[in-house]
Model the fold of this input.
Amino acid sequence: MPVDPKKLSLRSQFPSNWSSIIDFPEKRWESIDEALKKDRTLGTCFPPEGMEFEALKRVSPQDVKVVICGQDPYHAPGQAHGLAFSVPPRIQYPPSLRNIILELKDDLKAEWPLERDLDEDGVLGQWTRQGVLLLNDVLTVRQGTPGSHHQFGWNHLTGAVLNALADSDQPLAILLWGKSAKSHAARFYKACHGVFMAPHPSPLSAYRGFFGSRPFTQANDWLKRHAREEVNWIG
Done:
């Protein structure tokens, strides 16, 4: 019988293959756990309990080829499922996701496959199966209140994850969208790590440089130059 995630600590749910390569103090685990549990008693938070680390569960450290870093999860019901910018199957696309797809279609001169709406792993699930880590800077949010969990300490945990990737010698393409994500750029200092920054794809900033940034071509060009398999963003 599956264990109810409500009865588990966040640390116990963290994927062991990631836990073994990051340095994260017990006190920080306890602080995030306490803050999140308290806020869940006061109202609805997203993603659902047990899905906070979905992005890390989907991609093992050694399989990461591309990192797409967002801000915090979608804050409307039914949208967040633990993967940055993605939504579960049969859910209407939020504006940021619509803009990502618009840029992808323009960048790659290709159409977005409608069957993605039925992918049980989520609309962007196919990307995770190819080594794309869809990691938000902050991993939870209160319903209807973007940025509400920014003070919980999540950024220290996601920073530790990104530090572990930055310490590796495997070629990576790092796509940082928005001010919060861009703050992680300095972590990546090795020549095998390509960092590509752009404004956030939200309607408030997409026209300030996200559109036309060609992140998908840039990522694949970087992977190809470093002898790693490119991502099939459309297929």
